[in-house]
Amino acid sequence: MPPSLLKLVVALAAFLVLAAQTSATQHTGERKLEAGTPLGWPALRFQFTIKRSSMSVFGQTDFSMYANPVVSGKNDKVLYDVYATFTQNNTLHNYTLVDGVSYFEDTPFSSGSGVVTPVSKCINSESGDLPPVNAIAAAVSEAKNVSSSAGHSSTANECWGGNTYTVTVNGIDFSLCASGQIGFTMKGNYMDISVYYLESQIDIQAPTMDAAAARHCPTVASPSVVSPIGHSLLTGEPVSAKGIRKLKSAFDFSLDGLSPSCSCKSKPRPCVFIHGQGLQPEMEENQDSFPHYWGNLTNHAPCCSSMKYARLDTITNSWTDDTQQEKVCNRALAVSSTSSMSTIADTIIVTHSMGNLMLAGALANGKCKLDASSTWVGLAGPMKGSMASDFVQDSCAGKTNAVLEKFGEITGKCPPKGAIKSLAYEGESYSSTKLDAAYLAAQNAYKENVYALMCGEGYSGVLSKYQAKFWVLGGMIPHKSELNDGMVEFQSCAVGFPESKFGDTYRDRFYRTKLNHFDMEFLAGDSLLNEAKMPVKWFECLFLGTEMKYSPRAIVTVLAVVLCVFKHALDVAAESEARAWPSLGFHFKLKRTSMKVYGKSEFSVYANPAMSTNNTDVLYDAVASFELNEVRHNYTLSDGRAYFSRGSMGNGNTEVTCLATESSILQLINQLVTALNDAVPVSSVPTSGSNSVNCSRGSLLKASVKDVNFAVCSSVSAGLTLQGTDMDVNVEYLTTPFNLQDVHTKMDCKKTVAPTSVTPIGKSLLTGQPTLSSGRQLKAAFDFSFEGLSSCSCKSTPRPCIFIHGMGVAEEMPENQDNFTDYWGDHLADHAPCSLEVSETSTESTIADTIVVTHSMGNLMFAGALANGKCKLGASSTWVGMAGPMKGSMASDFVQQSCAGETNDVWEKIGNITGRCPVTTALKSVAYEDGDHSSKSLNAAYRAAQRAYRTYVSALMCGSGYSGILSMYQAEFWALGTMVPHKSRKNDGMVEFDSCAVGFSESRFCDSWRDRFYKTSLNHYDMQFLSGDALLNGEKMPMKWFECLL
Asked: Keywords in UniProt for this one (predicted)?
């Protein structure tokens, strides 16, 4: 087909797709604006200008994407359907996103006649490298005002006649300029985006594809919440008055990173590239180019004074072959005039895949040496081998395999040749003692000489022709870990280097990527807006400073951390005086459902600083508000005094009460402030599970609140974040103080919070100001790791759980119930990993393979049953006791004495806890042992029950304080704790610690949820799991204790 005709066909195809249809696709519970709808939620055209050639899409650096809004019925959420079209190599590529499902439709054009058939497929969230329009829209809703945008000449943003904002998309910063009814522009280091409002809607429809395949298409985009500023920017309409009051200005900011391209800051040297397995024929000399393997690195290797490419036979020859290793040395020695006969000098060596093993083997066997002036950059090295080799050898069995015919250009075809055999996984059946020894020697050379490393932990990859094949291979090959690039596991590539050294952005010298094996040959360039997929940018910007071989000496760590802390001075010197001590917004994100506050796992607390006259101490006033069941709950901390007010929505009448320190969520703020003043710089935070910590753009520190560790990442332009096991806290600098309501004028409350002494590091973190004069005093801590996980899994044998309640339940059921939320709360379903539903191993009298959980008088009932031989507890069962009145409760004596046979006004108010007059049999039966209301027979029963209790209880939770967790019943226990004449102040409001812990030494108990014998500050009801867990208080986490117990 002639080029001119092809362009006409493409234009017509684009026009037909964008033409308005008769009606819009219907969405359940949503409305899609009809074509031709006037401006309100307009369709948008996104015009992208890519500044790096390595990020081109289908070879294009300028292209448009069209987006049509799907708005929720309440107008507070939006999801855009998206369309774009590209041509490359006589193929039309149409991209659509409809109802959150993403599709590609490819239509080939040939010079012959006839009808062409489009090929359609759906893609997942990480597979495509088109800009994520819905992520951009979501980021726009989080835009913040700035007064200026600093940057290099290529990215500086002049916003004449408009408002300037900062926007962050997937961690990448943009400067946004709003231009009223025209649209807006976003400028960044890698790309610029111009967004235009369209006069009418467009109808975007999904391509036709096989119905069975369509049913398996994943949803990759979901509606995002629209803020007032987001609505204004996405529609061109002005911000509502209500929205304007909520807007907060950010500080002036600069586009982070560098210009679109990097320059060399170290010594330019010749570069030699050594490829991996699967190539023939061999060339006797290095080549000037090798784009078939390495892609196009032109203009992306500023530190390479020249580039040469080795061409070796890596199909027939193994990496352990002596001659092959000598050839690798010869190729590397040839590129620099300063290299000797055997020492490689002033050279940058880049190795991919098996090329890493060939060079490492050559160094290990003394074939050549690497001079200190040379640098080794490793990519995707199978340093422990590859399970792909084992898979090929398994599959072939000496004959051609149909699967390998399709993927042979990646894995190698049957029969397996010498190179693929030499990559058999270390220690597995296809390896040998000799090969294992060669691996170990190569790994030592690798660890000692590699300067920078890129390894893949995911094979989703960058948009390419080979991408889909790696999706198949990644799932087909029996890798030992899901963290792999489709061919090589992360643990094989990173062997010898701690995982904590790796980061997931191109700024990290040890780069942990989502690239597949071929992407790390630089074949597909870089991803857009995904810093875990930028191999070319990584290589281009790798040598930005003085090179130095890695050494884990403490002095290097200390100096590096101190330099990071001093970075504050460079970024904020101009505004340090103006900002002084800013007000702060603490934005909490709770990771455990049991910790929700008024049903919310995300909430904010705002704080104003009050400095002492000599500026040595600080005390924050704070405010937080929650809505639940049309009631607003307000918390205020003013001058160290805590207040609580509550009132119905729309009703001006409120109740105001004083709060004790432990009862208020506002205690968190000054606890965090104290912790930040004691923060210690660290160089890394090893983590596991979902607790990854990335602080590539700021200073990394450790802070602890009541032995709960946080990783603190401080960034002057963005505030700081505290990341912990159970919660994350984002601390935002505010430009104006928050208005604290004057709720305390008529209340004489006790001061419960004291000022915190300010340290240099604390002032720097809380204000963003430099600490030049005191910076020398900072010392780096050892690297630390988070203790435990946000959620626990069962480490023992899962078994059925039976929960036996305490006193006060009137209605008896003939059988066990599936739930009893009135007593046990509704959190247990997600926090009992060792619990099964049924048991078939118990006999008529012996309880086997069962977890028995008892609360309050339930402990006495079960202990009495065991003591009297009513049943037995088998060795396979576990008894977990909580708040047991094993010596009775003084609450029983108090009620009996107070009632005197008649109702007492006090018990009318709190009788739902203690029991009302006249005193019931159950309450009488927990009269305190040897007290006035006990008897000889009851005393004897207590002692028998205590012996059974001491013999069989495996874990115990007892209260030594009744301050408790925020709840509707909390205040009643404060009254009971002081009203009941307990024999000890250590009690849960109803039961004393000594009564609960009878028979067990107090030294066995500790005040952390990690302890099997748990000494808490919970009240009696809290130990029924009714209120979940407290925030930042290890003494008040009953749910986490139970979840992680077994």
From this structure: Signal
